[in-house]
Amino acid sequence: xxxxxxxxxxxxxxxxxxxxxxxxxxxxxxxxxxxxxxxxxxxxxxxxxxxxxxxxxxxxxxxxxxxxxxxxxxxxxxxxxxxxxxxxxxxxxxxxxxxxxxxxxxxxxxxxxxxxxxxxxxxxxxxxxxxxxxxxxxxxxxxxxxxxxxxxxxxxxxxxxxxxxxxxxxxxxxxxxxxxxxxxxxxxxxxxxxxxxxxxxxxxxxxxxxxxxxxxxxxxxxxxxxxxxxxxxxxxxxxxxxxxxxxxxxxxxxxxxxxxxxxxxxxxxxxxxxxxxxxxxxxxxxxxxxxxxxxxxxxxxxxxxxxxxxxxxxxxxxxxxxxxx
Amino acid sequence: xxxxxxxxxxxxxxxxxxxxxxxxxxxxxxxxxxxxxxxxxxxxxxxxxxxxxxxxxxxxxxxxxxxxxxxxxxxxxxxxxxxxxxxxxxxxxxxxxxxxxxxxxxxxxxxxxxxxxxxxxxxxxxxxxxxxxxxxxxxxxxxxxxxxxxxxxxxxxxxxxxxxxxxxxxxxxxxxxxxxxxxxxxxxxxxxxxxxxxxxxxxxxxxxxxxxxxxxxxxxxxxxxxxxxxxxxxxxxxxxxxxxxxxxxxxxxxxxxxxxxxxxxxxxxxxxxxxxxxxxxxxxxxxxxxxxxxxxxxxxxxxxxxxxxxxxxxxxxxxxxxxxxxx
Lengths: 325, 327
Hints:
Number of helices of chain B: 13
Order of helices and strands of chain B: EHEHEHEHHHEHEHEEEEHEEHEHEHH
CATH topology of chain A: Rossmann fold
Low-confidence stretches of chain B: none
Oligomer: heterodimer
Number of strands of chain B: 14
Largest sheet of chain A: 6 strands, parallel
Number of helices of chain A: 12
Shape of chain B: globular
Strand order of the largest sheet of chain B: 3-2-4-5-7-6-12
């Protein structure tokens, strides 16, 4: 079994900062009308994907829903390619053909970026099926929101994964709202994790604002899966600071609730942990943040200067003819 | 050449492709232990084992999506729908995921997957089990759709579909599983390209464009009309998408009259697209308006006589041919 490389925590903090600054800049560029369509920001949830990625190998498979910028960045897709995708440019991670909700990066085993709620959960099961079919020891991380758990495809997928004992971790990023509908108003269960029990899949609740807790839990589950293939379910409790998408003022929740979560910010929390342990100074943190901001500014410049896919090439992306890689 | 049933021809195609490529697997409801609801997969579990011949629960969306995910990392799934009427439960996977992935990912992920199973009205199955889905799926960019009518075409098209690097739907003709026809021996590789029609009978007075379950109707009508001195050329499309326009146009250039007999509904049906292309490209070749024979624009009734009245049938086709021939 190939070992999972220990990722440096300061590096992971830096990655969370990159995601945060990327999303802030994306928001600004969206308002400046440089970005079209829908745009769902990941601000507040950074510890979930960062913690999960820190716990697996680069050749493990990941797939997620439409709030996907953080997942691509965490996987190693460059800020340039991500921003260029938002700008609809040929240098984007999906050549400007996918947009905000459809980030893909084959080289980094990032299988999208899927915008129909829960429709990608069976795809995640298919990735895991391929792992087992080939006798590999990879793991699939399948991310989705709390809104996905009431969709039929989610239930079919969980049953199939359990039936075939596939190597997949279902990671429910429970940010308490499916668009504007709270979990309380959408879900008959008191806790989302209990959905897993119905399929005989082991499930646990994880604090999604705590990088270390997410990382350690995903690492533990992934190791168990590599030893003997099985599915697992993690309900990762988190919070998005912004609305569902850029057009949502999030008036369905109170300022007090938002402030409560902001105090529990995943970046502040990891920073405090590292500072307390003498692994990070304030100056170093400021440097990291400055670097993240600069990377994102450079990405905007890169996106602006990139060209668009010429219209003559459009039909090259309908059917694969074996000519391209 | 030897005689096979349509069902046996499909079974041979599956076995040959499973044998040839270890990335190919067959998945669907009742495909393994039950040996296939229509026995198309008979014997495959015994020969290839449960790793590659996989029974599923009744979860069309789930296992169609599983196949697409597996195809993203290079497996070549064959997903059987017990009938394409049930594929509608997986419509989201067939329309949103399989055909969009290549474009959405900027060309990074093509989906080499085959969806197959019986399609079109059978006999007194009522409205929910009688769908002819070809026009739904042919309207989606990124999908390919073929509709074999003979054992030879069934074998050759299915094998080609499995080797195609894109999502292909093989819409089998439910009423033709037991029909017989001549097929090349197993040691001769039989691949029939997608998008290539075949003239199933030559004629000079009128072109009848048909596919799937309407091919035997057209052949029967052609034999009948010959006795009345009307010579009909029967063009079997074999693929709905890509469409072999050339074969249609070449035949009309000879006959100058055309009837399209299709098994779907008339509104936005396959024949509507073909009519458009004919008038656009070879308007001057036509000596009569194009006629279409299709299902009636109603949900399928159960009653046998009413069902017959709804379906495209020989009487309707004869009447249409005579009209375009002014006979």
